[in-house]
Specification:
It is a single chain. Helices cover 17% and strands 33% of the residues. Strands 1, 2, 3, 10, 11 and 14 form a 6-stranded mixed β-sheet that branches. Strands 9-8-7-4-12-13 form a 6-stranded antiparallel β-sheet, with no helix packed on it. The protein has a two-stranded antiparallel sheet with strand order 5-6.
Amino acid sequence: MRLLSAFAALVLSSLPLASHAVDGITDPKGDFLPTFAGSSASTDLDVISASVLYDPAADVFTLIATMDGAIGITPTGFYVWGVNRGAGTAGFASLGLNGVRFDRVIILRPDGTGTIPGVGALPGGSISINGNTITGVVSGSLLTSTGFANKLDYTFNLWPRDGAFTGTAAISDFAPNNANFTATAVPEPGTALLSAAGLAGLLAWRRRQSNS
């Protein structure tokens, strides 16, 4: 059993770790902000889950957001990702949301386009939509640090908006509600294969022990 534990620890130690990373967040269904001027029928603006993956080798972020309804139900809807790269401020302190901090935003639209205000448009093909999920791929070169030494320390928040309205009345939801979350590191292919091989060997060893 000690050998098994040691082997498992060795395999797990080969997995890449992110600084205080989480696997993303889930958000309650139907929790539209009381200040939202849009309709509760805009289920495509109600966040159910969100996550960010970061590939250090390629320096690429993948932003994944799943809504309660199919993307595009609200013709004037779009999705804003706030990013804190180290100098983030509480842009929504007037709403009592001191935990939502950012110094850059990324905008993803249901028509498959995206922009980073102050930087420019995302390249064609950066945005993909699959039912209730909208995904954006963003080069880390477009998100230069403003203080954090490691891009895995960047934090994120997602707030859909209905462009038919202005100001905070356009925002339907914050995910998370009053905080940011970190990205999760994507394993390099070699590391992933090594880990998979190690786990396969571990399972085979356990089967042999059970049969002996």
